[in-house]
Amino acid sequence: MQLAFDNVTKLYGPVIGVNDISCRIGPGITGLFGANGAGKSTMMKLASGQLRPTSGRVTVGQRSAWSSAAKRTLGFSPEINSFYEEMTGRDFVYAMTRLYGYSAAEARERTEDALDEVGMRDRAERHIAGCSHGMRQRIKLAQALVHDPAVLLLDEPTSGIDPGGRKHIGDLLVGWASRGKTILISSHILAEVEHLADSILMIARGRIIASGTIAEVRELIEDQPFTVEVVAEPPRQMAAALVNLDVVQSVEIRGDVLTVRTRNPAQFYGQLSDLVIDGGYDVRRLAPLDSGADAVFGYLEQGAP
Amino acid sequence: MKLLRACGTLMMLSFRRLLWSTSTLMVAFPLIGSGLFLLRRRYTYGDENSRYFDVYSAFTAFSEEFVLALFVSFLLPICALAYATMSIGGDREDRTLLFLLVRPLPRTLIVVSKLLATLPLVVGLVVGSFWVYCKLAGEVGAIAYPIYLPAVLYMTLAYVSLFHLFAVTFRHSTIVALAYSLFMEIFIGNMPGIVKRVTVTFFGKSMIFEMGAEHGLPEPDPEWFVPVTAPGAGQTLVAICIGALVLTLWVFSRREYRDLT
Question: CB-CB: which of B20, B104, B106 is closest to A100?
Fold first, then answer.
């Protein structure tokens, strides 16, 4: 099932939340990235039917996201940490399950399955008020997936979860995606979901500035500077040799670390190999600094209208 | 069937949360305090220890001092306010309303379920406490309870609906409802002239004056209070109740609660 934004604009009075956004999300995992105030939260709220677009249309399958019918196919794990604090994790998930209209027995079964999936089954008797941040995240996740939704909206799902837990949840998301679910993950920590997401949406100032796989998005910025860190001996001589290469824009030296900026990474790596062999330099480390989504986003955001 | 089950769940969930909320503690103090006041100020008559010469003067004193001045002007609105604003307002302030809005429950049914969870609690508390007070008041209480009960019920329904409207409309609905109660119901409600007819209390008091008249409750000073007829007052309170409910449903089904995340 697809989540679709068609020419969606959302205004908060005179302030633009999102501006004429159109995209098709899913099936599979889609990462939604953007700085604070970029419009990420507005997109999540529109998708989960908390907000209505000022113009355009947000649909889940064929139904408007605002409708209660669409919400039956939608699971939402919010970023906020507000719960019915007096309840146990199990009671909370059970109560949320009952709100889908399941019978007590079915709700109980689904609750246990969901708690099991997020690794909370043996800790769910604890009152939410006494739960750690990571446990709360898992409870939020459990209440979002308890009705087996076709579309899952997860706002910062791994925030506050330990590395083992992140891997567990990552595997879980990949498993759901392989079953044809549509998953939209909003996150600040791009590296965490970059490897999970089949595609990414980058948003800045209320507009989608890039979408596609990380490789496709990277292609959008071929003419942007690409930074490589080189640790080599002798550093000064190598820096001098690097500066003479056509594809190198600049070289900074800090101790034996050289930070090289180039506009053409492919050509740069080719010329660098020749240079190292010809000059007999001892290269101990060679690492791109900005091939990740963070850097891509940084470049694109700078260029966004 | 699924929708009914979901509404039933929300009703029970809301009822339990309201019952064990701080609202219960908040209303317990004035309710207990009023009981103690009644124990101290006895509305007995006829013997040498009594303040009152006959049943009429005792009934009048109970009606004026307790029912009109304290119960319907203060205790009843406080009980309605404490639960009705917290029913949706509490979820809004705690930001747990979000978990309800993303479920497949039509928004109108969320309001109806919340209202149905609040009503038995407030009606039970108001009617129950009124019954206890009338028992404590003795013979005059036994007279007052059945004749004033309709007015108390109508007022309760009107206040609950009105404060639900506040809850879906205002971010800090408890504070707004308190301000409303103090300014509109107490200040405006006690001003001379017809301006007080915009208050719920006016119509409740009109019913009480008419019902109490046959037991000796004197008519109010026309300089200050010109009551409407009891049927007219009852109809107005029902209209307030229905009007507020319709507005609540309309506001809640259209409103975007941007402050939840």
Answer: B104
State the Cα–Cα distance between residues B238 and B77, nearest whole angstrom.
Answer: 16
**Nearest-CA residue of chain B relative to A100?**
B6
pLDDT confidence tier of residue A245, bands split at 50, 70 and 90: confident
Token digits of residue B179: 């301000």
A3 versus B48: which is more confidently predicted? A3
Residues 6+ apart with CB under 8 A from B32: none
**Residue A67 has what DSSP assignment?**
S
Judge whether A51 is closer than 8 Å to chain B, CB to CB: yes
**What's the pLDDT tens digit per position in B11-27?**
999 999 999 999 999 99
- How far, CA to CA in Å, does A135 sit from each of A90, A123, A167, B65? 12, 8, 15, 55
> Cβ separation of A80 and B99 shorter than 8 Å?
no
CA-to-CA dists, residue A197 to A170, A178, A188, B159, angstroms: 10, 12, 14, 52
Quote the minimal CA–CA distance from A121 to chain B in Å: 21
> CB burial class (10 A; 0-12, 13-18, 19+) of residue A245?
middle
- Separation of alpha carbons B66 and B132, rounded Å: 13
Query: What number is the average pLDDT over the span A115-143?
Result: 90
Q: Do B101 and A103 touch (CB under 8 A)?
A: no
Chain B hits for A80, Cβ within 8 Å:
95, 98, 260-261
Q: Is A269 on the interface with B (CB under 8 A)?
A: no
What is the band of A300 on the pLDDT scale with cuts at 50, 70, 90? low
Query: Least CA distance to A87: which residue of chain B?
Result: B17
**Sign, Cα dihedral of B141, B143, B144, B145:** positive
Taken in order A53, A58, A63, A66, the sign of the CA dihedral is: negative
Chain A CA closest to residue B10? A99
Query: How many A/B residue pairs have CB atoms within 8 Å?
Result: 75
Identify the band that residue A230 occupies on the pLDDT scale cut at 50, 70 and 90.
confident
Residue A296 pLDDT class (50, 70, 90 cuts): low
Which residue ranges of chain B lie beneath pLDDT 50?
none
Query: According to the model, what pLDDT value does residue B43 have?
Result: 84
Residues of chain B contacting A66 with CB distance shorter than 8 Å: none
Q: How far apart are CA A258 and CA A23, in angstroms?
A: 41
CA closest to B259 among chain A residues: A50
* All domains in chain A, ordered by first residue: 3-216 (3.40.50.300), 226-303 (3.30.70.100)
